[in-house]
Design a protein that fits this description.
With about 130 residues, the protein is an alpha+beta fold. It has a domain at about 1-90: GMP Synthetase, Chain A, domain 3, CATH 3.30.300. About 55% of the residues lie in helices and about 15% in strands. The chain has 7 helices and 3 strands; from the N terminus they run αααββααβαα. The protein has a 3-stranded mixed β-sheet with strand order 1-2-3. Strand 1 and strand 2 form a beta hairpin. It is rod-shaped and about 75 Å long.
Length: about 130
C-alpha cells in the first residue's frame, strides 16, 4: 500500500488527473483487493465519495468502518479531496442474453411445448372451441 500511496501522491501533484479520478484510483489502495471486489468507488460528489456495494450487508459493514476508511484515504491522497463516504447498493445487472428475432417468437405456440402428441391435439381442439 505504501508503493501505491507514493504513486498516487506523485499523480496528485500533476494537473492531468481530476480529483474524482484520483479518489477512485485511491480506493483500491485504501481498502485492498478483497473489499474492492465487493465495493467499487463510482463518483466524487461535493467531496463525498460514492461507493457501490453488492448488498445491504456490505453497506452496513462498510458504513461502520467509514471513519477508518476515510482516515486511510486521506493519508493516501491528502486532505480536502474526499470529506465523506456514501455507500449505495448497486442495481443488479442482467447478464447478456442471446437475441431472439420477432419471427421466432411469433411462430411459437404454447401448445407446441406439450410433449405428448395426443394431449397437444386435445389442447388445441379445446382452445379452438373456447375461442369460437
Amino acid at each position: 500500500m505504501e508503493r501505491a500511496g507514493k504513486i498516487l501522491a506523485k499523480i496528485k501533484n500533476s494537473d492531468t488527473i481530476s480529483p474524482e479520478e484520483l479518489a477512485r484510483a485511491a480506493w483500491l489502495a485504501t481498502v485492498g483487493k478483497r473489499i474492492a471486489a465487493k465495493a467499487s468507488a463510482k463518483a466524487l460528489v461535493r467531496g463525498s465519495l460514492i461507493v457501490e456495494v453488492e448488498d445491504a450487508i456490505w453497506q452496513k459493514q462498510l458504513f461502520h468502518l467509514r471513519f477508518d476508511i476515510l482516515a486511510k484515504l486521506t493519508s493516501v491522497i491528502g486532505s480536502g479531496i474526499v470529506t465523506g463516504l456514501e455507500f449505495r447498493i448497486a442495481t443488479p445487472r442482467r447478464p447478456p442474453q442471446a437475441a431472439q428475432s420477432h419471427s421466432d417468437t411469433a411462430s411459437l405456440d404454447e401448445a407446441d411445448r406439450i410433449e405428448d402428441p395426443v394431449l397437444r391435439i386435445l389442447y388445441k381442439q379445446a382452445r379452438k372451441r373456447a375461442t369460437a
